[in-house]
Design goal:
The protein has a single domain, classed as Rossmann fold, CATH 3.40.50.1010. The chain is built from 7 helices and 5 strands; from the N terminus they run E-H-H-E-H-H-E-H-H-E-H-E.
Length: 149
């Protein structure tokens, strides 16, 4: 199976929180291929910093979290693809079509645009996100979605 993870779901790979079991099952599934955008890696770094600032994660734990992210990226446990100019154009189109009815945010639109490009190239069986609103919009774009809970 081919999966595209946004940052909200990918975080669960590296930090024990509700839904991490489902994420771990996907990552350990034989023959599964995982994709994300490089934007997700930036967002994971931001998420770790926020958790340190708010006291929900120690600096040492944040460093370990980010080290694990880098190790998984380097070992190609998942493929992170660049965000291209075409993704920005598509994200703008997604915002125009969906943001007035749904709370679609800029970075989420970029993630979804990246997933749409990946789907055109290799196919994607599931778009994985912990964000229910993004899952709704992804479904409107004909994605099968999974919400790890």
């Amino acid at each position: 199976m081919l999966y595209f993870f946004d940052s909200s779901a990918l975080t669960k790979r590296f930090h024990s929180e509700p839904g991490w079991e489902m994420v771990e099952e996907i990552f350990s599934g034989r023959g599964n291929r995982i994709f994300t955008s490089r934007l997700a890696l930036v967002e994971l770094t931001s998420a770790a910093a926020i958790r340190v600032r708010t006291g929900t994660m120690t600096p040492d734990r944040a460093d370990k979290f980010l080290h694990t992210v880098r190790a998984d990226t380097d070992s190609r446990l998942f493929v992170s693809q660049r965000v291209l100019d075409v993704d920005y154009i598509r994200a703008q189109s997604l915002l125009t079509r969906h943001a007035r009815q749904h709370r679609l945010r800029t970075l989420d639109a970029l993630q979804l645009a990246s997933a749409l490009r990946r789907r055109e190239r290799t196919g994607i069986d599931f778009f994985v996100t912990a964000d229910r609103i993004l899952a709704q919009v992804a479904a409107l774009e004909s994605f099968e979605t999974l919400i790890p809970e």
